C-alpha cells in the first residue's frame, strides 16, 4: 500500500464519481473511487465523492490503524491514522512472489545553459512502473569513459533533470540519462548525447584575482599556458606612486592616460587608455632603441606588459582548438577574444560585431574602447587596441617613435599586427610572470 504514495493521484483515480473538475487519467488502472468512510464516533459517512480511504494491515496501537487516504485536491496519497471501529474500503494484494519485471523507457534530452548559469541536463521517462530508486545523469569528456554522476529523484514525475557547475566554455561533454526502478532488475539508460559547453556559461579557467598598486581588482583567464588579466588596466598612478598626467596632450616621451567617457562600457571593464611611456612606466628612454621583456610597467606586482612575442604565442594557440576558430578559416579568432557586448553591429559572419552573444569563447573579454589619437577618441565601439612592450624601428635615423600593437575590429575576423605611435592612447592587458 505504501507504494501508492509514489504515484500522482490522477493516475490512481477512476475517471468517474470524483468531484469535477478533475484531471484523473487512471493510467495505472487502479480505478480508485471516492467511497469516503463511515465514522463510528459520529455515526455518519464522510468524504463521499472527495476522498478514498483504504485499510492497511499496519496497526499503530490497540485502537488505531494506518490507512491510505487519497483526496481529489492533493497530488499524492498520504498516510492517516484511523480508528479501528470506523469502516473503510478494502483492496487486496496477491500474496506470492514479486511483481513481474517491467522496465521503463528512458530518453536523454538536449542540454542547455540554465538561468543560474549552469549546464542543465534533462531527460524523460515513459512506462514507469514501481518506484524510482535512483535517477540522474552520467557524464564525462570521453564517450567511452563517463566518470562523473549527478543523481536526483525526479523520475517519478516522468522527468529527470540535474544541473552541474564547474565546467568551462569549450569543454566537450558526453552525457546520458539513467533510471533504476523497483520493477526493473537493470538500470535503464537513454542515448548518449554530446554538447560543447557554450561561452554563455561565463566560467573560465583562471589564476585567481589580482590587484594593482591602487587596489583595483582584476579577474584573470588562462589561455593555453598564459594567464592574462580579463579587464583593461585602469590605475592613474605608476607603481612608484607618481601620478600619471592626463589631458589634451600628445607626447612620445612623457607618460599620459586618457579616459574615454563617451564609451558606454562600464569603467571597470573599459579601463583607461595609456600612451606607451605610461604603459611601460618610463619617460626619457621612450624613444630610445629599447624593447622590454617581463617589463612590469603599470601592471600589478608579479605581472608584466606582454611583449610582441607573447602576443604571438596567444595568436598561435587559439587556432589549435576549433572552439576558438569561427568557421573553417584558422585566422578567424577575433570573435573568441571579444566581449559579447558593445561592439558595432556587423553583417559579416565570424566577426565580433556579428551574433555577439557567441563571442568570447576564450574568456579574454576584449572591449571595444578604440584608441586616443590626434587629440581625439577614435574607433569607439569599432576596435580594440592593445600595447606590447616591444619598440618598432621608425625610420633610417634609428628613431623608435613606434611600438608594436595588436588590434581587431567589429567587422574583421582576424587579429591585426600594427606598429603604433608611442604618443597614442591604447588599452593595456597584463600577463602573469612565469
Largest sheet: 5 strands, antiparallel
| DSSP strand content | 25-35%
H/I helix tally: 5
What's the β-strand tally? 27
Helix content: under 10%
Q: What structural category characterises the helix and strand content? A: mainly beta
Low-confidence segments: none
Mean pLDDT: 88
Shape: elongated
How would you portray this structure in words?
By secondary structure, this protein is mainly beta. The protein has three domains: 2-83, no CATH class; 105-198, Sandwich (Immunoglobulin-like), CATH 2.60.40; 210-432, no CATH class. Helices cover 6% and strands 30% of the residues. The protein contains five helices and 27 strands. It has helices at 9-12, 267-270, 276-280, 308-317, 334-337; strands at residues 37-39, 44-46, 51-59, 64-71, 78-83, 105-108, 112-113, 119-126, 132-140, 148-152, 159-164, 172-181, 188-189, 193-196, 210-211, 217-218, 220-223, 226-229, 257-258, 273-274, 303-304, 371-373, 376-378, 383-392, 402-409, 416-421, 431-432. Strands 9, 10, 12, 13 and 14 form a five-stranded antiparallel sheet that branches. Strands 6, 7, 8 and 11 form a four-stranded antiparallel sheet that branches. The protein has a three-stranded antiparallel sheet with strand order 3-4-5, with no helix packed on it. Strand 9 and strand 10 form a beta hairpin. The longest helix has 10 residues, at 308-317. It is elongated, with a radius of gyration of 34 Å. The two termini are 67 Å apart. The model has no long low-confidence stretch (mean pLDDT 88).
Amino acid at each position: 500500500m505504501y507504494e501508492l504514495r509514489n504515484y500522482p493521484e490522477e493516475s490512481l483515480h477512476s475517471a468517474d464519481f470524483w468531484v469535477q473538475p478533475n484531471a484523473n487519467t487512471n493510467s495505472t488502472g487502479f480505478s480508485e473511487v471516492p467511497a469516503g468512510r463511515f465514522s463510528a464516533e459520529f455515526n455518519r459517512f464522510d468524504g463521499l465523492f472527495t476522498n478514498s480511504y483504504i485499510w492497511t494491515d499496519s496497526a499503530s496501537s490497540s485502537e488505531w490503524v494506518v490507512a491510505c487516504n487519497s483526496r481529489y485536491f492533493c497530488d499524492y496519497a498520504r498516510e492517516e491514522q484511523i480508528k479501528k471501529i470506523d469502516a473503510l474500503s478494502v483492496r487486496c494484494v496477491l500474496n506470492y512472489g514479486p511483481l513481474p519485471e517491467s522496465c521503463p523507457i528512458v530518453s536523454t534530452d538536449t542540454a542547455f545553459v540554465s538561468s543560474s548559469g549552469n549546464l542543465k541536463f534533462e531527460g524523460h521517462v515513459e512506462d514507469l512502473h514501481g518506484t524510482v530508486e535512483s535517477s540522474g545523469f552520467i557524464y564525462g569528456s570521453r564517450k567511452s569513459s563517463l566518470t562523473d554522476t549527478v543523481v536526483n529523484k525526479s523520475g517519478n514525475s516522468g522527468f529527470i533533470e540535474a544541473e552541474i557547475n564547474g565546467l568551462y566554455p569549450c569543454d566537450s561533454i558526453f552525457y546520458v540519462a539513467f533510471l533504476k526502478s523497483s520493477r526493473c532488475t537493470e538500470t535503464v539508460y537513454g542515448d548518449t548525447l554530446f554538447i560543447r559547453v557554450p561561452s554563455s556559461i561565463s566560467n573560465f579557467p583562471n589564476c585567481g584575482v589580482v590587484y594593482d598598486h591602487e587596489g583595483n581588482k582584476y579577474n584573470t583567464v588562462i589561455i593555453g599556458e598564459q594567464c592574462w588579466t580579463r579587464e583593461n588596466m585602469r590605475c592613474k598612478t605608476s607603481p612608484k606612486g607618481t601620478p600619471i598626467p592626463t589631458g589634451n596632450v600628445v607626447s612620445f616621451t612623457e607618460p599620459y592616460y586618457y579616459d574615454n567617457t563617451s564609451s558606454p562600457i562600464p569603467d571597470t571593464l573599459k579601463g583607461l587608455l595609456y600612451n606607451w611611456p605610461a604603459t611601460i612606466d618610463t619617460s626619457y628612454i621612450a624613444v630610445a632603441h629599447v624593447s622590454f621583456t617581463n617589463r612590469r610597467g603599470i601592471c600589478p606586482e608579479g605581472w608584466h606588459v606582454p611583449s610582441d612575442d607573447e602576443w604571438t604565442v596567444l595568436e598561435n594557440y587559439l587556432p589549435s582548438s576549433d572552439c576558438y576558430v569561427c568557421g573553417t578559416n584558422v585566422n578567424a579568432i577575433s570573435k573568441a577574444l571579444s566581449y559579447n557586448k558593445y561592439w558595432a553591429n556587423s553583417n559579416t559572419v565570424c566577426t565580433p560585431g556579428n551574433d555577439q552573444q557567441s563571442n568570447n569563447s576564450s574568456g579574454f573579454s576584449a572591449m571595444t574602447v578604440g584608441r586616443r589619437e590626434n587629440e581625439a577618441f577614435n574607433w569607439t565601439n569599432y576596435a580594440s587596441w592593445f600595447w606590447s612592450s616591444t619598440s618598432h624601428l621608425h625610420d633610417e635615423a634609428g628613431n623608435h617613435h613606434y611600438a608594436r600593437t595588436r588590434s581587431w575590429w567589429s567587422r574583421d575576423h582576424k587579429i591585426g599586427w600594427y606598429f603604433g605611435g608611442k604618443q597614442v592612447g591604447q588599452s593595456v592587458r597584463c600577463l602573469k610572470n612565469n
